[in-house]
Specification:
CATH architecture of the largest domain: Beta Barrel
CATH topology of the largest domain: Thrombin, subunit H
Order of helices and strands: HEEEEEEHEEEEEEHH
Structural class: alpha+beta
Helix content: 10-25%
CATH class of the largest domain: Mainly Beta
Radius of gyration: 18 Å
Number of domains: 2
Strand content: 35-45%
Largest sheet: 6 strands, antiparallel, barrel
Number of strands: 12
Length: about 220
Amino acid sequence: MSEDLERPTIALHGITTVAGRYVIGAQPSHPGINLFACRLRMICSDSLRMTAPVIPQIGEPVSVSFASFGTLTGTVARQFEDGFEIGLEQSAAERDKLNSKITNFSENLWTTTSDRRSAQRVMPSNPRTVIARPDNWSQPCLIVDYSISGAAVSAAFQPAVGEIVTVGRVTGEVVRLFDFGFAVRFFEPQSADNIEGLLEAPEEWRDVMRRTFRAV
């Protein structure tokens, strides 16, 4: 049996609180073109799955970075309605190192508690939604985090500061640009009890996305 086959594969599923960023292709990274935010969903020593605003083609190279796991590279192996999975390209030593990080992360995952209602900024349970402009232009986006007064967003475009956009069903103004996206300040503070539902994509838009994905 080869050395690689003897090495165990440690998998961690159901992750909901690890945000990162990814670059599609081998070109220099540019926000809104090939650099975007993402949310990790599953990771093991051979692959990872994430929720993302832009879904690359099968076989396309991707580099993804998470604070807890470092920078990982691979190619797109599967596409999903809300993101994609990449197969990781690693040496045996790199696989061992990642396995160790996954083990440490798993052991510490439930050692802290959080109160979603009292947190100033919250990571939504369903981060992939839709962003629209007043001229009815719209596309998928990813909410990095939000508060009752605004949200950090990543999408396949970089708007101008001052531009009016609607995230889900909440309208606001772009107030700042990041390397992976931009910040939107809502015109009115939202209810802490209702805001996450308002930030989700309208059902009719989600139906269109599901039909489009099944047709691919």
